[in-house]
Inverse folding.
């Protein structure tokens, strides 16, 4: 007969394995679907410019959604120079209006 502690241990082990597989799937999706590379200058529909330094993802909230990619980098001026205040910005790939400038 299975004891409560045994059940909890097995349940937590299965849950951890499932979470690890979901995380791996999200990472693979992000790697295969990122549209920009490190060093690319990208702009969103609001005119925000960044020089992309890294990309991360957020796991989907619903089973029917895919991970959302976020591009991180230094904010640039309209002349494509780093802002004097060194501001860092994040642009979301959820905003499909992202475009590569350079």
């Amino acid at each position: 007969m299975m004891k409560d502690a045994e059940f909890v241990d097995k349940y937590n082990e299965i849950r951890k394995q499932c979470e690890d597989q979901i995380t791996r799937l999200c990472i693979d999706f992000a790697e295969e679907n990122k549209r920009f590379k490190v060093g690319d200058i990208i702009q969103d529909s609001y005119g925000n410019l960044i020089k992309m330094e890294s990309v991360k993802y957020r796991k989907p909230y619903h089973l029917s959604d895919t991970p959302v990619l976020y591009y991180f980098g230094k904010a640039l001026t309209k002349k494509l120079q780093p802002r004097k205040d060194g501001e860092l910005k994040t642009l979301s790939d959820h905003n499909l209006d992202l475009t590569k400038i350079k």
